[in-house]
Amino acid sequence: MTVTTQTVTVTVDGVTIEVPAGTLIIRVAEMLGTAIPRFCDHPLLEPVAACRMCLVEVEGQGKPVPSCAVTVADGMIIKTQHTSELAEKAQAGVMEFLLINHPLDCPVCDKGGECPLQNQAMTNGRGETRFDGVKRTFPKPINVSAQVLLDRERCVSCARCTRFADQIAGDPFIELLERGSKQQVGISEDQPFDSYFSGNTIQICPVGALTSAKYRFRSRPFDLVSTPTACEHCAAGCGLRTDIRRGTVMRRLAWDSPEVNEEWNCDKGRFAFPYIKENRLTTPLVRDEEGNLVPASWPEAIRVAAAGLQATGQATGVLTGGRLTNEDASAYGAFARGVLGTNDVDFRARSTSDEETAFLANHVAGKSLEVTYGDLETAQSVLLVNFEPEDESPIVFLRLRKAALSGKTKVFAIAPYMTAGLAKMKGTLIAASPSSEVKALLGAVENLSAQSIVLVGERAAQTPGLLSAVAELVATTGARLAWIPRRAGERGSLDAGLLPIGGRNTTDIINAVGQDISGLLIAGVGVEDVAANLIEAIESADFVVSLETRHSAVTERADVVLPVAAVTEKSGTFRNWEGRDRAFDTVAAVPGSISDAAVLEELAHEMGATLTVSDFWATATKPALVASGNDSVSPGAGQAILSSWRHLLDKGTLQEGEPFLAATSRVGVIRVSPATAATLNLIDGATATVTHEETAVSAPVIVTANMAEGVVWLPANTEGTALNLPSGTCVTVTSGGVA
Amino acid sequence: MTLTPVLTAHWDEADSYSIAGYMRHGGYSAFKKAFTSTPDDIINLVKDSGLRGRGGAGFPTGLKWSFVPQNDGKPHYLVINADESEPGACKDIPLMMANPHSLIEGIIISAYAMRANHAFIYIRGEVPQAFRRVNNAIREAYTAGYLGKNIMGSGFDLEVVLHAGAGAYICGEETALLDSLEGRRGQPRLKPPFPAVSGLYASPSCVNNVETIANIPSIVNNGVDWFRSFGTEKSPGFKLFAVSGHVNRPGIYEAPLGITMRELLEHAGGVRNGHSVKFWLPGGSSVPMLTPDLLDTPLTYEDIAAAGSMLGTGTPMIFDETTSVVRAVTGWLSFYKHESCGKCTPCREGTYWISDLLHRFEEGHGTESDLDKLVELCGQIAGRSFCALGDAAATPFPAALKYFRDEFVQATHTPANETYDPTAATVFAGVTR
Fold first, then answer.
1. What's the mean pLDDT in B160-178?
2. Which of A73, A134, A374, A655 is such that its CA lies 20 to 30 A from the CA of B327?
3. Among all residues of chain B, which has the CA nearest to that of A39?
């Protein structure tokens, strides 16, 4: 089927061009390389025609027209500032007006040097001001959130930020207030700009009115060295630009990547970078005879590590975590299988199952771009299975919201309650507790067709039988399937073969330490992410090698610690959930900082072997997908089934060192349905405590109307509610705080 | 030319505002007659009558109605712009005080014509008396069965809602009014889509002025020929001329369009005794001022335009020789600066700057180069702003400078209050106690 687009012929500055009907004049000019100055115009936001900077002359129209808001008509003759005195004067007039109340603080303004107002004042303004009155001033700055600061006197009222918050993020917490020359952006007194995407408003602000607490007064644009990069925080695969000054990252911006993140990113991707410099391992560490971990030279550390791994050999388990690039993942695969000779290798630093192993091997591994961001916009319906996009893959959330608002795509979610994110996607909740998810999934079949997409989150592995049911569902409906993990390295690791085909999964490897596993090779695994007995396993193992960027509970207990390069210090590739490779370059090379792959190559060499990277999945035998037995949990009196996931901003180690970002994270709460609240004697707003074995956490209760029964939900790894247990666990819920 | 009281015919009766007073003179007969015609016939009738919008722009009313797509399955809304806030305009509020039922009957007919089952009256909130009176009139009409479900067994339903504005001039702009009515901050909307296609609640809507709609019953009752027997070919009908300023009997004079300002002045008892006209504005502060030599211009849309101004709201303001034109223009610009909604740059910043410069003249320390600057700045607003408020703000100064440049030059060294004693221009001038 070919799509025919109606075209019209228009003339811009004497050049005739054929363009699709409905194109805005300003876009047509861009096609011809003519830049019409603008402030409020943004290609991804609805036109507002407020700033009046882009006025052009259209033959036959008495008044100049705003080119950002008027679409072309056949035969239209357009004259920009280059050929029309009317347009040139109109633009110069608007520029003069914009500047009368704008402070001349460019030398201390963050935007100075990369400011559309500054630039266009030079191209379309007059050299000297004719205004000699008193400029409008405001007390400055005000916090619209902990991270976003507003200098109102710099604002040109373009409404880009307010339109972004309303139209793109769906978080309309900032709005234009007051009128006339007192007009200003503001927030409601007790409601800050609570959005995971707030940083985008800073980036699209065409003046220095919005700045971040993180970057404010830290650097000048012309001192920065910029590198296109890919975000390491989740599996979305955002294209970013990382700016450094003298080797230190100053800021990160969303980069134009129409197929993936368009021009947006989330606040975690934008602001969570100080961790790179925090708590870094700088030299190799080796445990000495007294049992102390002491600095060692690279040759010595490699020698000790190689000797130890040679000894544990096939009895070594390899746990790699989610931070690996494709290149590093391939190296771990080759090292585990080719050098150590073990299949006990698993990238999943979280709760997992053999059912998931088979699911990933059969339905995800090796498939690339079968479902893309673009497909989400054309799908008839999208079913989310144990996947909360706003928290777990925010760019997927933005794209789904865009799709839903366009009216083409209907979103359904199997989830314990109607989340704010789901509401913003105009989604329909299929309420389910972890014990009824499989049943709910089978019931969702009526919403699916061959034009549907099923998005499965990594949490689906926590419910026995769910992934098998998903596989069956897509087979019967013809819907397409995509798996969206949380971490940036997971998809690449899967494709590189870091899955225990013929071996044991993360949980089983940890449990086998002290039995037939004596050595561990660990990279990028946080102990809070996996079973609590990991620390025990490390301590009881004969030999543990840790490849890590920063000090952690694992490095403290390892026998040899080999420091590896952080994401800014190396080039590499992250494969995002679509299976799309997102390559990035070295941002700031640090002498002596080498990648995991390079360290593994050294180790292999020391062990008398070579790393041979091969296409693992070409020869692998995929295990058959069998539903795990569902040993159904039945909560007793005073108990409920836990459902939990992480907020986007949590206590994650990669968010360390950024207090302004942390201050915008969401607080821990305990959610129950009204009926469940009544059964458990919980009162809305009052504190309750959730207990499992020795662990107890307390938080305020939110009685949630649209919620599955018998479930208690709380965010994982959040201050106050870091129970960090898999969903489906039976927990005790009591009113009141921890005794 | 004589006065032609139609809307004002019975304002001197004590109960002119009540339903009984209205019905004593044939009120609420027109809508029953209208119900015997088809809605399209009513639209054509209004089109043929040549009635033009009385809110200021003078757009043909029937044509505006015909833009509302019919039989599209969507709800339609009739919105009455009763947010009369133009400096100098005082006609809709007296009309609503003295004869609110003519508006309500007009609403019934107009809503029937454009197939709207909901009508909203957006009334200026600062006039609680008018609010109460219209509210009461609506209640009376409901009680009489002229509003509500299945009006008089016709099968036509109409609900009327009265909504008080919160005191913003911009909400008289029809799309800002719609935003305000929807509960948002009143700022004009981007057009297209026009309200006729996507107006209130994104549905086809028509926004009409109070006086325009109040004219409808008389047109239905008396016909096109009767209506066209008043006024001119291009400006048919009669008009509420609210004459204010330095006249002996300021007030509302209902006369055919085409009456001259001089004739109107005679009806209003002439200029204050012992004084003469210095300048006058045909319809509110947003139209260019005219000089006494143009007092014989017929007050029609076309003749006033030819004379270099606009009929606007048709509410002439007369200023005698005691008036400082500098002070008058500065006052208007203070108003526009205060009322600019802030959405677009030229109006938001331009009114700020112009107002600032004019205040210098008022205080006697403008410069002659500021005068050229002011003309340029007005030119930078006119035709470049988002809505007509900017155009209006750019209007008073250039016209004033054209006729009274000397006065502005004098204001480069002498404060306006020294040249023109401000008390001399007041109603209490010359009164001693």
1. 97
2. A134
3. B345
Q: By CB neighbour count within 10 A (0-12 exposed, 13-18 middle, 19+ buried), where does A371 fall?
A: buried
Would you call A157 an interface residue with chain B, using a CB distance cutoff of 8 Å? yes
**B202 Cα to chain A: minimum distance (Å):** 16
- Picking from B168, B343, B353, the nearest residue to A50 by CB comes out as B343
pLDDT mean over A466-487 = 97
Helix, strand, or coil (residue A408): coil
Confirm if A549 and A489 have CB atoms less than 8 A apart.
Answer: no
Say which of A69, A175, A179 has its CB closest to residue B342. Answer: A179
**Sole residue written with tokens 């040679």:** A310
ipTM, 2 dp: 0.95
As a whole number, mean pLDDT of residues A89-113 equals 96
Structure tokens at A100: 């009368």
Nearest-CA distance A593 → chain B (Å): 52
Coil, helix or strand for A451?
A: coil
B222-275 pLDDT per residue, tens = 999 999 999 999 999 999 999 999 999 999 999 999 999 999 999 999 999 999
Report whether pLDDT(B168) > 90: yes
Q: Are A191 and A127 in contact (CB under 8 A)?
A: no
pLDDT above 70 for A289 = yes
A407 and chain B: CB distance < 8 Å anywhere?
Answer: no
Q: What is the pLDDT of residue B433?
A: 62
CA distances from A725 to A339, A357, A484, A736 (A): 35, 20, 20, 21
Is the CB of B356 less than 8 angstroms away from the CB of A69? no
* pLDDT tens digits for range B194-207: 999 999 999 999 99
Nearest to A48 among B190, B337, B384 (CB): B190
Hey, how many other C-beta atoms are within 10 angstroms of the C-beta on A476?
11
Chain A residues inside the 8 Å CB shell of B380: 89-90, 93-94, 96-97
Residue A484 has pLDDT above 60, yes or no: yes
- Write the residue in A51, A130, A133 that is nearest to B356 by C-beta: A133
Residue type, B180: S
A1 pLDDT tier (thresholds 50, 70, 90): very low
One-letter amino acid identity for B153?
G
What digits encode the pLDDT tens for the residues A119-140? 999 999 988 899 999 999 999 8
Please state, in angstroms and rounded to a whole number, the distance separating the CA atoms of residues A579 and A577.
5
> Among residues 133-152 of chain B, which lie with CB inside 8 Å of chain A?
none
What pTM does this model have? 0.96
CB contact under 8 A, B386 and A64: no
**Angle, helices A596-606/A298-312, rounded to nearest 10 degrees:** 70
B342 to chain A, any CB pair closer than 8 A? The answer is: yes
- Nearest one of A191, A200, A186, A199 to A141, comparing CA atoms: A186
CA distance A176 to A179: 9
In eight-state DSSP terms, residue A261 is T
pLDDT tens for each residue of A413-448: 999 999 999 999 999 999 999 999 999 999 999 999
Q: Where are the beta strands (DSSP E) in A178-321?
A: 184-187, 210-212, 225-230, 239-245, 248-254, 285-287, 293-295, 316-319
Hey, is the C-beta of B193 within 8 angstroms of any chain A C-beta? Answer: no
Mean pLDDT of A459-467: 95
Mean residue pLDDT of chain A comes to: 95
Q: Which residues pair with A7 in a beta bridge?
A: A20
CB distance from A500 to chain B under 8 Å? Answer: no
CA distance A471 to B80: 59
SS3 A454: strand
B349 touches chain A (CB under 8 A): yes
* A471 in B contact zone (CB under 8 Å): no
Give the strands of the sheet with A148-150, arranged side by side.
A142-143, A148-150, A210-212
Residue of A nearest to B359 (CA): A133
- Cis geometry, peptide bond prior to residue A141 (ω within 30 degrees of 0): yes
